[in-house]
């Protein structure tokens, strides 16, 4: 297969960022086609009635920016400031900014029969530091209720409807137009997609959201356990960062949904605010560190690895600044930009690793692309490039959970690769061990192989016999016909030896023309003598080499455990002495027992 063919599969998924861009452009084009109310329609009081999706107010909001942050309700109701309220041309498109905004709008009942009905004004934000509701004000200027003050800087008990998003309960006594003012002090102040609901309709509409949040949290808790198990089992740094990324993502989502203030820090809003600031930055840092290790960027793309490290340091500094600096919005702008930049960097790293046929990179690329597609909508809306849509936060939350799931699958894929590599390494080690324990020329065991087998039997206290064999006349074969002829003799005799013994026995070449046999069990002397006779006879048979018959003889020394020794060295020494005696016997049988000092 050609190099181009090997790399071809990675080129398709490399276009994921361009697909995300095309989808975003399509979304922007779809938004631009929405119908725009006329000026008179926008200034007219909004007729509220039962609406299962809530009565939208965004197009009817008159906005005043309080640059001094000191204006009160009496100030903004004065003629001087009333004339400064404006209707934005595109209310749901605008950049977030750290400022104070006043909103003014008029409401009336569509059906006077709804006069006793309680209504709920919902401001879809959890990040507002301080939000104040004033009114409703009757046409004569009289307020129907006391002001309500709540927000992230206030305990959970200040929430009028005990909802994560900012909301306000009110009633209209009749069908007259009533004016409402809302003051918003936020690091992320913008024009919100405010809606008026019947309280029962709102609670019913949030059931799907509560279920969605519950499923998301359940999956993330499961991924936390999964990451913890991987960390405890394998102990690698990559699983520390995966575990931390799951934990920080969970904290970020809980902060974005308002659950951080509602549950763990209901009486400590400052802690909830710190979590809201820190968790997104920490999540991106941990995600970057997990990605660089999963993709092995230090090996595949060192320059990308250095860029990821640099981004992590910048985000760490931004997170600290977000807690103590004078412009905390800078932290979120950096985090938002870093999410996009980091996604691009990691996608590039995944492409590089994927082109090297590192398959976990493909899964990682899918996860990053999914999140990039979803998070781009909310980030671009925060930058004023897109209009805000009700489902953007849910889309991002779902994509974040999906990314973590895909990352978990990629980590499992990496584990499989590591397991396969370890198995291949173990097999290679076994091959090396077998090579060390095997004589390359004859295929018989080496001296190391002989020692391993003998020591195993010695540990098990098994009896066995050792036959030490030395070829007679082998040197003359080498001298007359060359080493190739000698090698052929050695290989042939090793084969004959293996054919002469059982599978449970061991044939080893100790070096040169010296062989050894390990015979399992406790064979009788007669059996050993018969085997030695057969081996001597087989050695005497000529070896055909290039048409020439090559002949050698064989001398054998026999030692038995435990009679002749209790260690391999003792047995080999006893067998060697017996073999030496057999060589000295000019007309002997060709073998000698160690137990017979005078000969066989």
Description:
InterPro entries: 7TMR_DISM_rcpt_extracell_dom1 (IPR011623), 7TMR_DISM_rcpt_extracell_dom2 (IPR011622), DGC-Regulatory_Protein (IPR052163), GGDEF_dom (IPR000160), Nucleotide_cyclase (IPR029787), Rev_trsase/Diguanyl_cyclase (IPR043128). This is Diguanylate cyclase. Keywords: Membrane, Signal, Transmembrane, Transmembrane helix. Pfam families: 7TMR-DISM_7TM, 7TMR-DISMED2, GGDEF. With 600 residues, the chain is α+β, with helices and mostly antiparallel strands. It folds into three domains: 239 residues, Up-down Bundle (Rhopdopsin 7-helix transmembrane proteins); 170 residues, Immunoglobulin-like (Sandwich); 147 residues, Reverse transcriptase/Diguanylate cyclase domain (Alpha-Beta Plaits), CATH 3.30.70.270. The protein is built from 20 helices and 17 strands. Helix 7 packs antiparallel against helix 8. The two termini are 66 Å apart. 40% of the residues are buried.
Task: Please give the structural blueprint.
Blueprint: H1 3-7, H2 16-32, H3 39-43, E1 46-48, E2 55-56, E3 62-65, H4 73-76, H5 79-82, E4 97-109, E5 118-123, E6 130-137, E7 148-150, E8 166-171, E9 178-189, E10 195-198, H6 199-205, H7 207-234, H8 237-256, H9 259-262, H10 269-294, H11 297-300, H12 302-324, H13 329-355, H14 360-382, H15 392-437, H16 447-459, E11 464-472, H17 474-481, H18 483-500, E12 506-511, E13 514-520, H19 525-540, E14 543-545, E15 548-550, E16 553-561, H20 568-584, E17 591-593
Parallel strand pairs: 1-4, 16-17
Antiparallel strand pairs: 2-10, 3-4, 4-9, 5-8, 5-10, 6-7, 6-9, 11-13, 11-16, 12-13, 14-15
